[in-house]
Amino acid sequence: MADDLKMGEQAKFREMLEGSKEDWDIISEHAKHFNKGLAKRVIDHLKLLDGDYGGFPVDRLTHSLQTATRAHRDGRDEEYVVCALLHDIGDTLGSFNHPDVAAAILKPFVSEANHWMVANHGAFQGYYFFHHLGLDRNFRDQFRDSPHFEYCAQFCHLYDQSAFDPEYESEPLEFFVPMVERLFAKPKNSMYLRKTEA
């Protein structure tokens, strides 16, 4: 049984075509242990935003903490608050598409509305500055037909665009860690889960 497997065991195949049920039991057991560390890995990656100002009045971690703190203090639910915390986590690896990176990380764990909000917040945030760069500030209008348009616009207006205040007292990252751990403890949807597991 998978529960009896030692963590040092490895699958024997050289190609997946050769894989057996026993091989995949070993891999599944490793995955269970690895997946338990997902929240910590996400927090560790978020910490890479610390000290990265990019010319902004606050560093990117402070911006993330302010966004999440504002949402939390406004009474938003925990899933929304974690989305607010992680919305810019892709800045380090996805400099030209950071919303896609954050949305991909969150997708298995959040509602369709929250996923859409994170995935598209860059276009909506552009309303506040695109015109200063010679871009179309109304770029977000292409999404007018989405049922999540106002939801995302509200996120950007209330929490994202307003979270660059050096004097704002945010909650520390440690305050949000238990929320992140709870959210990443169990996916809501993933192609790697049987329907009974979701």
Written description of the protein model:
The chain is an all-alpha fold and 198 residues long. The protein has a single domain (40-183), classed as Hypothetical protein af1432. Helix content is 47%, strand content 0%. It has helices at 21-35, 38-46, 60-73, 78-86, 98-106, 112-125, 149-160, 173-183. Helix 2 packs antiparallel against helix 8 (173-183) and helix 3 (60-73) packs across helix 7 (149-160). The protein is globular, with a radius of gyration of 20 Å. Residues 1-5 have low confidence and may be disordered.
Characteristics of this structure?
disordered N terminus, 8 helices, Hypothetical protein af1432, mainly alpha
Share in β-strands: under 5%
Distance between the termini: 22 Å
Mean pLDDT: 94
Q: Tell me the major beta sheet.
A: none
Oligomer: single chain
Q: State the helicity in percent bands.
A: 40-55%
The first-level CATH class is given as Mainly Alpha
Radius of gyration equals 20 Å
Under CATH, the topology can be stated as Hypothetical protein af1432
At a glance:
The protein has eight helices and no strands. It is mainly α.
SSE diagram, text form:
Elements: H1 21-35, H2 38-46, H3 60-73, H4 78-86, H5 98-106, H6 112-125, H7 149-160, H8 173-183
Helix pairs in contact: 2-8, 3-4, 3-7, 4-8, 5-6, 6-7
